[in-house]
Records
---
Amino acid sequence: MTTTGKKLEKMRNNPLDWRIEDVLAVAKEYNLEIRSHGGSHYTFSHTDIDFHVSIPAHRPIKTVYIKDFVKFIDTIKERVK
């Protein structure tokens, strides 16, 4: 398992106290499109999925955002086999 794969599993098991840098690393591993227009949020999308996830860049990132991000990655893994 890759380092980012381990990071994703850690996010799944404990969604507390994550930094946006960690989320960006996982997003790049799964080839997500990352958009940030200089604001306070990052938006993650994928060409095979018709919805996106937004995460605020400030700390602490609330657990609901990490849980949504993990679900988004799971959806991508399920559809893009």
---
Amino acid sequence: MVRVELQSSLLKAASYQDGCALLDLEFRGGEIYRYVAVPAQTYRELLLAESQGRYFNTHIRTRFASTKIGSASSGVKADSGHHQATR
């Protein structure tokens, strides 16, 4: 997954794995969440959005299952391979 730095007050970076449709988002607070079954088109639209935070809130946050996989501030990325659906 290639990490892309974002220009957003909410989101710091995004990574997308096309084959598995996994979107990892790092928030400015340091938390990293993985969103599952995210179409590549949604990822591309996030990157191109005028407001990436607004796009996230409208098109991703409540539409795709997610799980917290780590915290950038602690340097820990807990990726157990299990994806729990949370909102």
